[in-house]
Amino acid sequence: MSSRKAKVVKTSELQKKSKPTTTAEIPNFESLSFPFAPYTGLVGIHTSLLAFTALYLPRSSLYIPTALYSAYFQVPDDFTVLSQPQSDISGASIITSLTASPVQTLAWTVGGVAFLQTWWGGWVRQWALRAREEGSEGERKAQRQELEKDKVAALNQAFVATAATSVVFFATLVLFGAPLTSHLAHTYLLSLLLSFLAVFPPAYTLGVPLSLTWPSYLSLPQLDSSQPRFVQGLYWARLFAELSPRSPLERALVYPAVGTALGCWLGAIPLALDWDRSWQAWPLPPTYGALLGYVLGSLGAMIVSAVQYFADMNRMNTKIREERGVKDKSSKKKKN
């Protein structure tokens, strides 16, 4: 009996020794499964197209007839740069065309950003759906087809959430000092831009945490308090209230949103300076600050995820080599 107890104790001690003692030794397999090559390539394309949208897309109004453009956007009579298409893309020409009508610049920018964010949100959503797939290849294909059925509904919910949060952003901008009795179109277009940058991708990828249900046509809408919505709300709270993303997918959603908010807030600083420059017109500095913050947030998420990916790969390869070395030593001892 004593010999059996000794054997049991020895085997339990060996099992304890074989188990990792710290969580730092375990690689983050979520970071190992993210699509590194397509993700980095698409981030570069996405950020480049956002820069093009912000700097060059508003200048496409140069090809609108001068009389129609001047009547709609209220361009001053002494402004002659828009009278004919210009091939000069110098810095002065770009600034002049972008600051001629802030409403026109915001309208073109919001349209381009909405198109790009729809494309980008769709790709991130596909990434999230593939990360949830389990089982064999046939089971994964069936799960993918089942989730694709909700694509249109998810897209509609994302647009509704974007429109709803634009009203919240509008009120927030007014509370932070935006003009209330004038420049309403300017302020709302900025709030809509912030919604497309910060809210649309996570709403399309993760789903909207709040939804309204109508028990009947004549009743008032009620807030959906089901358990899936509650869990989804906690997930959103962890990401955007606690700011604690744990995977490359979550970083791709959280970092750009945080960069958008910080960029818009820091971009408002030049508005208080008495330099009397045309580019200080409301809301151009916060607009380009938000776009710059989004681009930097996207690049930051890519860099952090790439560094963690290669670090986890290195740790995993090191662990595999150590296990192989232990097996080789044990096999050599058995042969001897």
TrEMBL record:
<keyword id="KW-0256">Endoplasmic reticulum</keyword>
<keyword id="KW-1133">Transmembrane helix</keyword>
<feature type="transmembrane region" description="Helical">
    <location>
        <begin position="188"/>
        <end position="212"/>
    </location>
</feature>
<feature type="transmembrane region" description="Helical">
    <location>
        <begin position="252"/>
        <end position="271"/>
    </location>
</feature>
<feature type="region of interest" description="Disordered">
    <location>
        <begin position="1"/>
        <end position="22"/>
    </location>
</feature>
<dbReference type="Pfam" id="PF06699">
    <property type="entry name" value="PIG-F"/>
</dbReference>
<dbReference type="GO" id="GO:0006506">
    <property type="term" value="P:GPI anchor biosynthetic process"/>
</dbReference>
<keyword id="KW-0472">Membrane</keyword>
<protein>
    <submittedName>
        <fullName>PIG-F-domain-containing protein</fullName>
    </submittedName>
</protein>
<feature type="transmembrane region" description="Helical">
    <location>
        <begin position="291"/>
        <end position="311"/>
    </location>
</feature>
<keyword id="KW-0337">GPI-anchor biosynthesis</keyword>
<dbReference type="InterPro" id="IPR009580">
    <property type="entry name" value="GPI_biosynthesis_protein_Pig-F"/>
</dbReference>
<dbReference type="GO" id="GO:0005789">
    <property type="term" value="C:endoplasmic reticulum membrane"/>
</dbReference>
<comment type="pathway">
    <text>Glycolipid biosynthesis; glycosylphosphatidylinositol-anchor biosynthesis.</text>
</comment>
<keyword id="KW-0812">Transmembrane</keyword>
<feature type="transmembrane region" description="Helical">
    <location>
        <begin position="154"/>
        <end position="176"/>
    </location>
</feature>
